[in-house]
Design a protein that fits this description.
It contains nine helices and seven strands. The chain is an alpha/beta fold. It has a single domain, classed as Rossmann fold. It has a seven-stranded parallel β-sheet, sandwiched between helices. Strand 1, helix 1 and strand 2 form a beta-alpha-beta unit. Helix 4 packs parallel to helix 6. The N and C termini lie far apart (38 Å). The structure holds acetoacetyl-coenzyme A. Acetoacetyl-coenzyme A binds next to helix 5 and helix 7.
């Protein structure tokens, strides 16, 4: 039996690498994406992995999207909450929308996906949830009160849900990536990024597949004893 894995924000960046790693592990992988149709079509053509469009920040849309995946592909046993956005800016210039979008999508998305899939995992007695946090949720980051709060919230969410899932065979873990070579990090002003990279002991950005390896480890059949943990994959930038 090939378990069904859903990766949110799965059509590009870290999400795409996670989809590929889980497929290589023998999972039946489904990607979710929010809006970029062209990238999603190219992703499916390249990988053979279907992509379902819904906004994980929208509660009803997420319930419907996951119900559609379960009906068309099969019951969802593995969820990787990877979808995330940045709306960087210092607090005195940050709008409420910039705050709210990041909380709604990055943190709310984890709740919405869990509401859609955790009850089924609990009933079937097996499940794996991996939430993608961030080094900036552990250490804070200038210009990111919204993102740091949401990512920090993900770490608390993970530890709480891990306690609820434990006796039902459902593990819940987080990965806290550092600065990874993706479109999101490429949007950081070059002069700012240069200073950040200078503080990473390994001396470079991470690669998306270096995060995907961690997800494959946490979602493996053999991963039953790992729950409530946070795997920090950041090149030594922050030793938490
Ligand atoms: N610590 C202290 N001061 C800082 C600082 C820092 N880390 N960064 C900037 N400043 C200071 C500047 O020196 C400047 O000071 P002066 O006015 O005295 O010269 C002041 O803050 C304003 O800086 P900017 O000109 O950069 O201000 P801005 O309003 O144009 O931009 C910003 C502010 C949007 C926050 C911009 O600095 C920025 O984009 N920073 C990067 C934030 C970041 O790292 N985001 C991560 C995105 S990737 C990601 O989130 C993935 C992940 O999980 C790791």
């Amino acid at each position: 039996m090939s378990r069904v894995a859903v990766v949110t924000g799965g059509s590009r960046g870290i999400g795409k690498a996670i989809c590929e790693a889980l497929k290589a592990q023998g999972r039946t992988v489904v990607a979710n994406y929010a809006g970029n149709e062209d990238k999603a079509r190219a992703f499916t053509a390249e990988t053979g992995i279907p992509a379902y469009r819904f906004d994980v920040g929208d509660h009803e849309a997420t319930l419907e999207g996951c119900a559609r995946i379960a009906a068309e592909i099969g019951p969802i046993d593995i969820v990787v909450n990877n979808a995330g956005v940045t709306r960087d800016g210092v607090l005195h210039k940050m709008s409420f929308d910039d705050w709210n979008d990041v909380m709604r999508i990055n943190l709310g998305g984890c709740f919405n996906m869990a509401k859609a899939t955790f009850p089924g995992m609990r009933e079937r007695g097996w499940g794996r949830i991996v939430n993608i946090g961030s080094v900036n949720g552990q250490s804070g980051q200038y210009g990111q009160v919204n993102y740091a709060a949401a990512k920090s919230g993900i770490h608390g969410f993970t530890k709480a849900l891990a306690q609820e899932g434990a006796k039902f065979g459902v593990t819940v873990n987080a990965i806290a990536p550092g600065y990874i070579d993706t479109d999101m990090v490429a949007a950081v002003p070059p002069a700012v990024l240069e200073k950040i990279v200078a503080k990473i002991p390994v001396g470079r950005l991470g690669q998306a597949d270096e995060i995907a390896r961690g997800v494959a480890f946490l979602t493996a059949e053999e991963g039953a004893f790992v729950t409530g943990s946070t795997m920090s994959l950041n090149g030594g930038q922050h030793m938490y």
